[in-house]
Each structure stands twice: as C-alpha cells, then as structure tokens.
Amino acid sequence: MFAGVESMTIELEQAEKVLNIPFHSKTWHMLIEFSKIPLYDRKLESIKVASNVFKYDSKQISFNCETIHKYEQLTAKKSSDIKMEDVIPIMHQIDAIRGIISSDLQAIILAVKNSTELLDFLREVMYGDIRFLIDAVEEHSEQYVRESTVSDLIELKRFFQPVLKGNSADSLGSLFDLLQKQIDQSGLVKIPEKIHMCRENLHSLKALYRNVANRGERTIEVIENIMRRGSFHFLMTLEREVSVKYEQEKKESKHSDADLSDLRSRALLLMNTEDRESNRTRSLRREELEKFVKIIDKAFKVTHICMQLKQAGHFDFAKYEETCNRDNLKDLKLRLQEQYEQWIASLEICRRNYYYLNFYTLTNFMNYTLLEKNMGNNEATVAILRFIDPLTENLTKIREIYRTFPLFQSVITRMFLETSSTTGIFPQAHQVLFCRRDTTFDEISLLLNRCLKTPIAASLYSIANIEMLPLRIQFLLHDEIQRLPKEGNFLLCCLCRDHEGQSFLDQFSDMLSKPNPLSNLSLKTCLNENWEQVTVVTSDTPGLGKTEFIQREAILAKKRSLCIHISGPLNRISIIEGLASLSLRSYNVLHLDIGDVSDPVELDLFLFELIVLRYVSSGSTAYALSCNDIYIEIANTVNDIVQLSSDNNVFSKKTFTVDVVR
Fold this sequence. Notes:
Elements: H1 8-19, H2 25-34, H3 37-53, H4 65-75, H5 84-98, H6 103-111, H7 116-124, H8 132-139, H9 147-164, H10 172-185, H11 191-200, H12 202-229, E1 231-236, E2 240-248, E3 251-255, H13 257-272, H14 280-311, E4 320-325, H15 329-353, H16 362-372, H17 378-388, H18 395-404, H19 411-417, E5 432-434, H20 441-453, E6 460-464, H21 471-482, E7 491-494, H22 503-506, H23 520-530, E8 534-538, H24 546-556, E9 560-568, H25 572-582, E10 588-597, H26 600-613, E11 615-618, E12 621-624, E13 630-634, H27 639-645, H28 649-654, E14 657-659
Parallel strand pairs: 5-6, 6-7, 8-13, 8-14, 9-10, 10-13
Antiparallel strand pairs: 1-2, 1-4, 2-3, 11-12
Helix pairs in contact: 3-5, 6-11, 9-10, 9-11, 12-13, 13-14, 14-15, 16-17
Keywords: Acyltransferase, Transferase
Protein name: RNF213
GO molecular function: ATP hydrolysis activity; ubiquitin protein ligase activity
C-alpha cells in the first residue's frame, strides 16, 4: 500500500500543492499514523503468538478483537468498508504494547511459536528440580541426549517459570513486562537458540526424564526396605566402611557406603521435587524421606567417630566391627563420642605425666601395639624409636621390657633415659620441626611439650619455616608461646624466613634476632666433613651411565644398591612409604633417582631432613634412615630446575657433586 513512500510528510505536502487544498491537522496526523502500518505487522504477530502459546483468552487481551479483525482485513487489502478512524485507535493500542516488546523479546516470542509441546513439558516439570538430569546424562554416557541440551532445558525452565505459573500476569501487557524482566535479570543468553535445540530434542528429553522418574520409584522402594528391615554394619580395618543389609524375597540385599550416599542424594532430590499441592500421601512420603536422610547422617557420623578413634590411636579401633538397627544408631553414636572424649582426655593426662609419650603422634600408639602382636608396622615402629633416640638399636631389650610392664608405666621412660644421646652440633629429629602447609597443631604441641619437659638440660628445640603454616595455626602457636613460663629450664627457637610482612614475628619484636646465614662455602664444608658418605651424581649429558656408576660403587663396597625414583608431583607421603618398602639395612646403599619434580624447594628440604636428621615424617607416616651410604642421581632434565630453584639447593646440587665421565 505504501510501497516506495520514503516520507509521508513530503507526500502530503506534494498532495496539498497538486490539489491546492490544505489538509486539516487531524487528517494530516491520521495519514501519517496510517502510513506506519507496515511497522506494526511483526509486533501484531508477536502479540498473537504470545496470546496463543501462553494460553491467554482473547477476552483477556486489552484491545478490541473486532478492531484487530478489521486491521487484518486492512492489511489483507479487504478494506472497502473500514474507516481510517476505526483503525487509528487500534494502532495506538498496539503502539502502547509495541514499546514494551524489545528486539530480544520479539525473537523469543517468535521462537516459541512452534514450541507449545516444549512449554507443556516445562509446565509438567515446573515444581520439580530437573538438575539431576545432568547426572543422569553422565550415567547414560549421553545415549539419550547431549549434556549441553539438558543444560539448555534447565535454563529455559528457569527463564519461563514465572510465566508458566499462570498467575503472574493478568494481561498481555503485564506478560510482556514479566518476560522483559526475565531477560534483564536472569543473565541468560541465546534463549531463542536454546528453545530451538530443546524443541528438536524434546522426545529424547522426555525419555530421559521418564527414565529418571522410574528410577525415583525404585529409590523409594529401596529406602522403604532399609527403613523397615535394614540393619547397619560398621567395619573398621585399614579403611572405614558402613553398609546396610536386609532380606527381600528370601535373599539378602546389601548396600555399601557409596550406595547409601547415593540414596541419600536421591532422597534429597525427591524431597525437593515433591509437588507443592497439599496431599496427605505426598506429605507422608516426604516425612519418611526426611527420616531416612537423618538416619543415614547418623550412620555416617558413627563411621566418622570410629575413624577419629582410630586416628587417635585407640587400641580397640585398629579393627572394629559393630552391627545395630536404625533405632539404636543414636545410642551408638553417643557412646562412641563419649569414648572418644574420654580417650583424648586420658592421653592429655598421660602426656603430662610421661615425657616420652610426647614423641608419639596419636596413630603411633596403635603402630607400637601392633608390632608387639606381630601384626606388621615394623618399619613405622622402628622409625618412632629412632625418632626418640637415633642410637636406640637394641630393640630386643625394648621388646622384653615392654612385655613385662604396662605401656604407660615409668619403666619405659627410664629405659629410654639409659640410652645415650647424640651430643654433636646437629639437632636430633625430635628436636626440630620443619613446618609445611599441612603441619598440624598437634605436631607443634608435641614439640613444645618435649621442649618444656626434656630431662636433658640446655637442649635446643626449634620450629622452622613458620611462614609456611596457615594463619589459623600461626595464631594458635602465638597463643601457646605466650603461655610458656617466663623462666624455665628450656631453650626454644622459632625460625621464620622472609621477615618482611610476617605478622607472626611482629608479635615478638622484643625477642627477634636476625642471624647471618651460612655462606655457600661454609655450608658445603660443613656438610662434606660430616656426611662424606653422601654423593650426588650428575653428568653434562644423558646416557653416560650414572646408574651403572652407582651400582658399581656399591659392589666395590660389598653392598647392595636399592633405588627409589622421585619425579612428577612431589608427594611426601608416597616417598616415605616408598622408602619404608625398601626395608633398608646397614649393608645397603640408598639410591635416590631424582627426575623432574614439581617443587624442587620442597625436595631440597626433604633431602635435608632425610640425610641430616635421618628421619622424615608426614602426619602419622614416618621413616628413619637405617643405612649410611647414599647416592643422589639427578637427571639431566632437571639439572637447571633444581639449580635455580632456591638458595637451599646448595645441599642437593653443589655439595657432593661427582661428574661421571666416560
């Protein structure tokens, strides 16, 4: 109708000149408005689509349906009986809504034009939590639908949920306002593309949802069986384990702790997806699910307390087994909790009364007992004894004394006091603690107890690398130091690198000292004089036979070489366990084959502890070095990395270097 018309104003001015008749201002305005009809077509299409797919009855639409019909007749060129004054009001009403419909909103409305089934499905799952479909996709290896498509469905549900509730918008105008609010506040993007993807995969999405829903019914059946007939079985050996058993159709069913954890998660999902309608059956089922979740939480709490007792060294929990029904779980939990608290209190009393118990971590008590029962842990127990005194060699006498007297009697203290101690310039392992990020306050507390109660006068105890401790542990250490007696027969040194910015040292500014560190030459001389049996083997190029050189040297010394390889992510516990598995003796040579490691600085510190202190530990895992000859082979791939890692590398790289030349 208005093809080729660029400006209606210019057209009207030309018409006035040709007809020589001035138009009335009302006529002028109506014609200009009428010329905008092509701009209203897409907006009117959006209005019609929205009223259809969101199920708005024509009576709820704020403008006259008869006028819309006339407007459609006009655009269809069937306008002989339509007056312009009838069209202008509807254009004004459409224009009022047109201002609300942004380009993004219009794209979304047109995208849902052919998606009524998708919207019906979203209405079906409206009050449920469909995020569990993501896990279902992973379990079925995306055989139903891609995970990204399920994510799109979850986002569409979140976007359309306020609209599909049906009572949020009482008119079409408020509907558009609500949709625009979702666009602005939801943070979701590419909604039309997501609608298209979910519409194309709607059948697969429904199949996945039905499959998971059926599994939910199976979950409820299992939960009901556990609640009615289940008994909980707790087993503590190397690891903690909880399971539940019940008989069904003359067969025993068993669910492991992993199964129980999964059932608990499913029960929570079922509780969240319950229909919000007030229904007695649903209310009862939700109540049962809540009881089940609480019972599983109690069972897991029991296993946690059992593990605490084992880690605390309680002898009865080296191996523990208990069976009880769900009604007795609370009593069992309270009994174990009381047992744990009494055990910890007893340990505190014993550590105050018996000095050498402060050398043991909690788990070490159990290791020592297991040794006496011929149940292994020999290496761990020997490490404990050598940690107390590196000259404690005659373990047979210790065994006989142990068998004669109870564990906590003072005879053990006297026995250890009769053993001579090292009096050189280097500290013993029990006198120094190198802090790491995973150092516990229990380790620090034990060293402080040893320092305060040492029977050997003027023994210096040290806590090094305090800056590595988490702030929480630093605060606890600060408070503990403040509680130390002002005058006492003990010596304690706290070492902290990088003084600048260390808040811990600022609290002790009146006691702060900044000694000059040893020069590289002094450190090299000291280590060469005291550990001449340690050799670092390097070469300029690979393939020159460093390993063969070490094996030949061991044979010449009439000893056997045992090797442990260290590379990749530095795992202190794994290295200690590897050393213990070698079962080194005095006739062995330790061969440390060092490859590319993630933390050369930490490796330097580990080697220092192993060689100088002859003892390394991590938590309850410990090892005491039992041979003298050590060869450290550094692979060519890490030469530069170790050399440039830090100032600590003087020991590991430059001290005992022997170049292998062929």
